[in-house]
Amino acid sequence: MSMQILVRPSGTSFDDVIAVARHGARVGLSDEALAAMAAARRVVDGLAAGPEPVYGVSTGFGALAVRHIGPELRERLQRNIVRSHAAGLGPRVEREVVRALMFLRLKTVASGHTGVRPEVAATMAAVLNAGLTPVVHEHGSLGCSGDLAPLAHCALTLLGEGEAEGPDGTVGPAGPLLAAHGIAPVELREKEGLALLNGTDGMLGMLIMACADLGRLLTSADVTAALTLEALLGTERVLAPELHALRPHPGQAASAANMLRVLAGSGLTGHHQDDAPRVQDAYSVRCAPQVAGAARDTLAHARTVAERELAAAVDNPVVVDGRVESNGNFHGAPLGYVLDFLAIAAADLASITERRTDRLLDRNRSHGLPPFLAEDAGVDSGLMIAQYTQAALVGELKRLAVPASVDSIPSSAMQEDHVSMGWAAARKLRTAVDGLGRVVAVELYAATRALELREGLAGRGLRPGPAALAVIGAARAAGVAGRGEDRYLAPDLAAAERFVRGGGLIEAAESAAGPLA
């Protein structure tokens, strides 16, 4: 990717983080950032030359902060904190997460509040631009004092130690990888080792990417909910703007408006009084905007928290107004709470989505559709087991909705006696977002098949609307099979998942319905 993100002391944006993490955008340091870092370094150098002990500059760390460290041992002190804290275990963390973590740490270093030298920041940028990705492990962060172990594994690469992945995907020792790209390892000075470890960058990077992914999934869920309402011959009158104005939650209004746009021109809606009369549609259909809208409002709150954190300079101690001060800004509670909140919203949105799918498959509640949407029920099982898969995913999402941020295990000999578990909240949210995408994909698969099975109503002028027809056509072109006898289902469901995740569903719906929120 040819674009370059210029890092400034004032912070960065959602789009910049996504561009670096997922699309390989290059990074550079602005003149303002270089000047801010140099000024902060002069403060640290002055304190390092003085007789008074300063945490992170001339003392040990955590519970060992009581020891004063002489000048002759300080480079070793900073190198050792990186080595000792690179203690992660378990599977490797995804490349995009590591790149987000590295970029966000560079953003804080460039703020001029950490005391890290400009040449260290330049090396961080060079590693990102070379496409080198430190090997970071799943387990090791308590989300307090920063994402210590994950950030330590990244800092270890700057020293030419540990393991990293090259741009070709090959994992090997970091030293030779740096040398192959003309990058000299850094030699850390006072405070620098600590400053490279003490941030919320991992959980923030995962929050930003989850917000981006959930934004697309919420719109996708509005589309599939509308298709299900249409396939069940439900009424769109519950989506009227004046009804939602009575309860002025912005997310609810946005979801209802999306569904109404998707249903425009449908010949199937409003026939709930025909063959199997009903006064109202079931909650899973009628209350779709209320549930998806609540998830939207939760996402909006999470984005606000993430934007504040993007503007922050999280380190301990920090350089401020010509002095170095200890603080507790590294505590991950603000992020941990919203990460858990998003997992709850994802689980509930998945739950109502699955209930709509089950309704499509049950001939006693589907208003004329064949059992399990099978072509020849009894000989064919249709989508019976697709709903099982969806239900299993919903069960997992409910388990993932159990908050991580209410837990705390004291560490560092009780010096760090309350921690956020924000990293764990972020890790489980990534799994939840993946699961929600699959749940929405199953509803898409069922709803498009159900709409095709309504062909018998076409003679009465009852045809799906333009948006539904556009989605069906695009889904079929993307490999999502339509009605027919039983077939090997897993590839079709995987194609539906790709169609949802890749934005094909939203693009197809918008081609007929116009822009969706």
Automatic annotation (TrEMBL):
GO terms, molecular function: histidine ammonia-lyase activity
Keywords: Histidine metabolism, Lyase
Protein localization: Cytoplasm
Cross-referenced Gene3D superfamilies: Fumarase/aspartase (Central domain) (1.20.200.10), Fumarase/aspartase (N-terminal domain) (1.10.275.10)
Family per record: Belongs to the PAL/histidase family.
Species annotation: Streptomyces johnsoniae
Name of the protein in its database record: Histidine ammonia-lyase
Main location class: cytoplasm
Reaction equation(s) it catalyzes: L-histidine = trans-urocanate + NH4(+)
UniProt entry tagged with the keyword Lyase: yes
Enzyme class: lyase
Pathway where this protein functions: Amino-acid degradation; L-histidine degradation into L-glutamate; N-formimidoyl-L-glutamate from L-histidine: step 1/3
EC number: 4.3.1.3
